[in-house]
Amino acid sequence: MVFATCGPNEVMVVSGLCHGEPLYLSGGGRVFVLPGIHKIDRLSLNTMTLKVETQRVYTTLGVAVSVTGVAQVKIEGERINVLKSACQHFLGKSEKQIRYIALETLEGHQRAIMGNMTVEQLYQDRKTFSKHVFEVASSDLMNMGIIVISYTLKDIHDSEGYLKALGQARTAQVKRDARIGESEAKRDSGIKQALAEESQMKSKYENEQKVAAAERDYHIEKAKFDEQVRTQQAQADMAYDLQAAIQRQKIKEEKMKIIEVERSQQIHVMEQEILRKEKELEAEIRRPAEAERFKKEKLAEASAIEIQLKAEAQAQSIKLKGEAEAAAIRARAKAEAEQMTQKAEAWKQYQDAALVDMVLETLPRVVAEVATPLSNVNNIKLVSTGGSEVGASKLTGEVLSIVECLPKMINTMTGVDIAKATGGRSNRIAA
Length: 431
What we know:
Number of strands: 8
Oligomer: single chain
Shape: elongated
């Protein structure tokens, strides 16, 4: 004995010994069976989706169109009489065979209904077409134990462009109606807007008149009230100013009394402070100052005696030193006078020759002084124009050109022509 269970999505049919009629179990039923004596058959209750395609069916006006519909069907498992019919038709068949039978039935009814309708009806009233197919197919499939859960028209098309032309004509008509409706709506809107603006402006002007009248009445009443308020305020201000002036006068008198008392106290304090400072001055400054003055007087007297003694000694020393220096100066002056006398006699005797000798003796020192600035130069850059000397010879030539100018300068200053006196010797020496 075997315990057999039926799934929630299937129908189980038990037949055989002890069963005058087959036992139908669905939705999770269970039963004990005897292998070899009882037979168990199962039928699926799953929903099957069918794509119903009908190609090139001619409608009542002779236009060929193609339609695609989608249907949801399943084996009826609730009502026992319908379930018996399903078992009679499909028990032992595969789900593919059941799908094929249901699809062919639906496609035949869809084709028949298409032939009784126009393209415009199919295109514009899909709901009615779907309803007709659903009702007709449900009746036939129910006799086979299959129920149609739903049917939907998925697509309508044709190969001749009829639907496209129909859509274009309808689109043009709709656009035309839309433009007309838009124009009429704009016209009605403009009229209504003008009427509304007129009513609005009328109401606005009436309101403005009422507001102006109200403002006028308000300003008149406000001016009256303001005048009364200002009058009362002026009276109150005058009374307040009078009382304030009286109080200020009293406060001023009290302040003056306080100031007089403060000044009396300050004078007394200042007198006491003066006495204290006099005593402090007496103790800290005057008496020490007198002692310091006495000390400085004594020190000054001693310093004056010391300075006087030093001055007398220094005067004596200067006197002796001056006498010695005077004697030396007289001796030196006498020697220089004798030397000058001898030089004068020599110059008188030799005249230009002596002057030339002195110039020649001084000339090397002059040359050295002329060249001294050049010895202090760190860097010299010489630029040649192409026809002059460069290098050390150029610098030497510059120094000698300066020395050559000396005879002319001496002649100008002393009137002695050295070149003439020496017969050109100065120029040869310079060279």
